[in-house]
Amino acid sequence: MNLKKLNALYPNKIAFITGAGSGLGAAFAKVLSENNWTLHLSDINENALKNVVGDLKTNEKIFQYTLDVGDKHQFEKVVQEVFKNTESVDVVINNAGIGDGLLFKDYPVDKWEKMIEINLMGTFYGCHFFSPHLIKQKRGLLLNVGSSAGFMNAPAMSAYSTSKAAVYSLSESLHHELKPYNIQVSVLTPTFFKTNIMENASSPVMKGYAEKQMKYSKTNADEVAEITLDKAAKGKFQIIHPTDAKTKFFLKKWLPKLVAKEYHKMMTKLVKMNG
């Protein structure tokens, strides 16, 4: 896909992406590389990141950083390293995240903390450490990856939903705060599509449910990345994709009692399955 609008907005074409070693992060890297962007890619898995970089086809430079987004000191050092390698960054994509699902009563505190640390604080650190540079430049795009789970608060998803709802709220505040500095802030709120986000899920039931949703999804990470970048370049704040994400958003807003009824059925099944 030719990202004509994005390329025109940011002719220097320099981007930083977290979680670029797989899934949506790798897809963002792929579509940007096809448009000859200089890429600064990070991931906690160094080998996975190397494999992604090896598959990218571009004439531009690709910089690699090993990064645990939940470690603020490490994140700060990586950003410092980025600006040793480049004078500016046009697009920052806070994509890294983890997925999990388990009933609240069974979900350990340490896993709750990890969910907030990676999904929320990892996104916050990306915004926190990059925004001063973007403000100084008076241009840029901050793209945060949230989830439809941030507004569809299903049973057994309290930790994940909380983390992604917070990502949405953070993004909305920054959208207004950074606009005077010519900085666009967008948030993606998708439903399931084919990624490995639930590979370490605590519950086999929730993992099976997620994998089933991914299996029958009519979209993929490449499509989501392309559409997201296109809409963000056009100034869209909340990017809801694919189609079933739009359907869920509509149902939650206009038919909340129907959603509550479905979640009651879901909870009844989960109680029976968990004894």
Using the alpha-carbon principal axes, give the shape: globular
Report strand order across the widest sheet.
Answer: 3-2-1-4-5-6-7
Largest sheet: 7 strands, parallel
- Tally the helices: 10
Q: Considering DSSP H and I runs of 4 or more, what fraction of the residues is helical?
A: 40-55%
Order of helices and strands: HEHEHEHEHEHEHHEHH
The strand count comes to: 7
Separation of termini?
49 Å
> What is the SS-derived class?
alpha/beta
| Percent of sequence in beta strands | 5-15%
Poorly predicted ranges: none
Please compute the radius of gyration using only Cα atoms.
18 Å
Mean of all residue-level pLDDT scores: 92
Give the structure's gist in a few sentences.
The protein is an alpha/beta fold and 275 residues long. Helix content is 53%, strand content 12%. The chain has a 7-stranded parallel sheet with strand order 3-2-1-4-5-6-7, sandwiched between helices.
Structural features:
275 residues, alpha/beta, seven-stranded parallel sheet, 10 helices, 53% helix, 12% strand
Report on the architecture of this protein.
This protein has 275 residues and is α/β, with parallel strands linked by helices. The chain has 10 helices and 7 strands. The protein has a 7-stranded parallel β-sheet with strand order 3-2-1-4-5-6-7, sandwiched between helices. Helix 2 crosses helix 8 (221-233), helix 4 (72-85) runs parallel beside helix 5 and helix 9 crosses helix 10 (256-273).
